[in-house]
Amino acid sequence: MTEHVQSVKETRRARNIGVPLALAIIIAAAAHAQPQPAGEYQIKSAFLFNFAKFVEWPAQLLPRGDSPMIIGVLGDDPFGNDLDDVINNKTVNGRPIVIKRYASAAEIQLCHILFISTSERKDVPMILHTLDGTGVLTVSEIEQFTQLGGAVRFYLADAKVRFEINVDEADREHIRVSSKLLKLATIIREQKRE
Amino acid sequence: MGTFRDMSIRRKLMMINMTTSCVALLLAAAAFTWYEFQAFRGSASYNLLSLADIIGSNSTAAIPFNDQRSAEETLSALRAEGHAVSACIYTADGKVFATYYRDPGKGLDVPPFPSPDGFGFEESHITIFRSVMLDGEKIGTVYIQYDLTELYGRLQQYLLIVGVVMLASMLAAFLLSSALQKVISTPVRALAQIARSVSVDRNYSVRATAHSKDELGQMINGFNDMLTQIQLRDSALQQAHDELERRVEERTQSLESSVSLLHATLESTADGILVVDQHNNVINFNGKFVDMWRIPEELLTSRLDDRMLQFVLTQLADPEEFRRRVQEVYSNPDIESFDVVDFRDGRVFERYSHPQRVGGVSVGRVWSFRDVTAQHRANDLIREQATLLEKARDAILVDDADGVIKFWNKGAERLYGWTAAEAIGRKSGELLHGGDQSATAPANKALHERSEWAGELEQLTKDNREILVESRWSLVQVNGNPKTTLHINTDITEKKRLEAQFLRVQRMEGIGTLAAGIAHDINNILSPIMMSVDLLKEKCRDPHTSRLLGILGTNAQRGADLVKQVLTFARGVEGERVTVQLKHLIKEIERIARETFPRAISIETAVARDLWPISGDATQLHQVLLNFCVNARDAISGDGTIVISAENVMLDERAVLENIEAKIGSYVILAVSDTGAGIPKDIVNKIFDPFFTTKERGKGTGLGLSTVIAIVKSHGGFVTVETEIGKGTSFRAYLPALAITEADVVEQQSVAPARGNGELILVVDDEVAILEMTKAMLVNAGYDVVMAENGRQALTIYAQRRDSIALVITDIMMPVMDGPTMINELRKMNSDVKVIGASGLAGNAASENGAQSEVCMFLPKPFTSEKLLQVLHVALSEACKGCTRMPDDPRYRLCRSRAMREAE
User: Which terminal residue of chain A has fewer beta carbons within 10 Å of its beta carbon, N or C?
Assistant: First the structure.
């Protein structure tokens, strides 16, 4: 006899005992967590959050073990509540995550991941210039963002959200991106463009 | 196992060797195989865990970023590890995220849902579920199925090698052990050969040869030693056997001798003896048994025990009891028994039985019978005689040479108060004479000389009472001891006392007659003297002579008074007889005594509350009481107490026996007790004699108590005295109570306020108030009443209703027609009419009026309801029937006396 079978048997026994209760729980769970095909920005919110786990910032940006990780949104916020729902008091390596929304690049003081809305398309070169050397991981869905010197750009391929990473920009900002993340991303190098 | 046990030692050794080595080898092989299997499985599990961890780690980014392609790439790295059959990654919410199959299309689908972390061992696979963790959070699960086919291949190979090695080892072990077992089996077989020859040929002289010094060598040496010992033992046994033969011979002889002794004993004993075995079959009996039970010859030779028992039973008085007893004894084989068997013809046997035991087990029983008929008859005779002795009224006792009591019959118990148990063993002299040897000395002397004596003895009882017995002593020969004495004592105390009393009465009568004669003569002498003195006084004018005549007259008068007093006791006293309540008398005496006696003497009275009245002369009784009191006073010197008491008493036959003057009936005891000096014993019998006095000459006449006796006697009573020196004296005068019988006493106690039962009563009285009152009382008590206001009216009513009127209550003094006239008229109509007279006049006055003789009862006015009902009840009772018609009828007197008593 295998241990699997044994555990299944035990589970069955347990179910036999409390079928009505189990049924009630299943129905309730189903009603609560409807599959509701995850929206694009919901996925993107999750990606923003997960980037934090695979990226290392220079030590001066996170001086203490419990210094908060700041995720900023510049320009018109496309996420609605999605970003707040995803973050929802979660932590990364024990750090709290703070979401900040900026109207202009000038407001930014300390930020680790900055999502630049498509509403700022025209000002991208200027914004990137402003943020040069501040250690901010810039993310956007604007075309040519990585070519313009941005770090990460979301794109859709086969109806799936994908992303490309400008490793040169990351190096410039002294941000170390995990090889595991890089393996999933389309790598962009500026030399190629030049 | 049986077959193994019977195998030759050589085969056994081979078998043991082979079994031991095979089992050892098999256990070793199994252990190695098991270890190999476990080790392989352990390393496989470890590999699997590493693989799962690597894949999990490499997928930490692919899962959250939902990159299935990247995850599958990671999984495909398993292809390098040829044993992973399938694998997959699940997302945190349990969905299959990426899969891997070594041989796609071969069916082995991955589980649709992840299980908790852990290994799963299946027939040919191990599976693992391993969580993928990112930043302390579970983001997915890795599943790998690992093929174990290789493990089993290796295990098969391993088992093959083990099998080959075992076979080779066993072959080697077999060859070795078959060569080596000879070291042990050869000498053992040689020894067995010799043992067989010893047992078959009984030749204990052969010996085995020992080739070594090990246990086998020791065993062979031991065997040889044993043979030597057996040789020795054999010859000793032969000797013992011869000795035994000789002893059996001896024992047989002695047994024969004891059997003959037993037989002789059986036949010579006086008892009948019967021996039975444990099945109760007759084993043996003696001639005496046959004689005693009168068993006929043919029954003896038949040997039929049942017939014998039947024959025995026919002779018995109670065959059932005999049979029951035999059964009881037979059902308890270990008990001894003794009982007595009664025969129809009066013979009596004692029957004993004793179990015959061999080694503590009962194997039979010996019965013995002893004819005790003669003894029983003798015993019966003795018992009979003893019963007669016990029944004798006389005290019969036997004492031995030392005066120790040996026998004490019921008569003695009755007379002396000591029971036989108390008396036997004590000395008769101490018990009966208080140790005073002088009392019995003449008797003992006579006994010594003539072997018998008869006479009177004063003896003491248990309660220290002195009694006088007429005693007859005789020496009895018991067991050749001539010093045993039989005493037969008859109590004559009472007889002697009555004799003395009788003599005293006779003496008194004699003295009385004498005194009366003398007194009469003296009276005749004194009369002319006194008449002459009177005449001379009238004629004499000389004062001196007149004075002398006065002295003469006074002394003549004293002489006349004395003579009168002498006549009082001598002729008896004549006095009036009226109903006297002694309590009034006692009160009067008490008053006199208190006033005149010294203060040091206290006077007490004790009068019974329901004291019966007596009929007598109050003045004389006053004299009696005063005389007692004066004597009491004189007996007390200094402080003391006088108690005057009166109580009712019923004298029965016994009291009459104690005093010749007493009669059966009711008495009132008038008693005076003092705490004075008491009267010495030697004069107590004389105190009632006339002219006997202890007082100084001139102080007492010696006639006081004799006058008392005369007075009490004239009342039909008697006087007793009880005295003790230093303690005091009690005088008791027994006076017959007024016509009280026992029945009256009972009636008085139980029927106090009697009620009527609807009887019709005619009430006659001229005072309407009294009439109404009487009616109310009677109706209240259950009577019916008709009323009349005068005699004439009463006669009219009585004439109309004479049959229903039960009784007439009438006033005596009435206008129109008075009571007596009316009663006479009533009697003319009905001679049996019952009438109760009621009057305000006292009894005597009413009597003088002539009414009392006419009425059934008299009711003094004013009367209470209770008195009315009592008198009415008595008058209505049967005893009063026709009472007025026959004044001589005793019932008349009874009825009258009752009425008078109640009227008091």
Answer: C
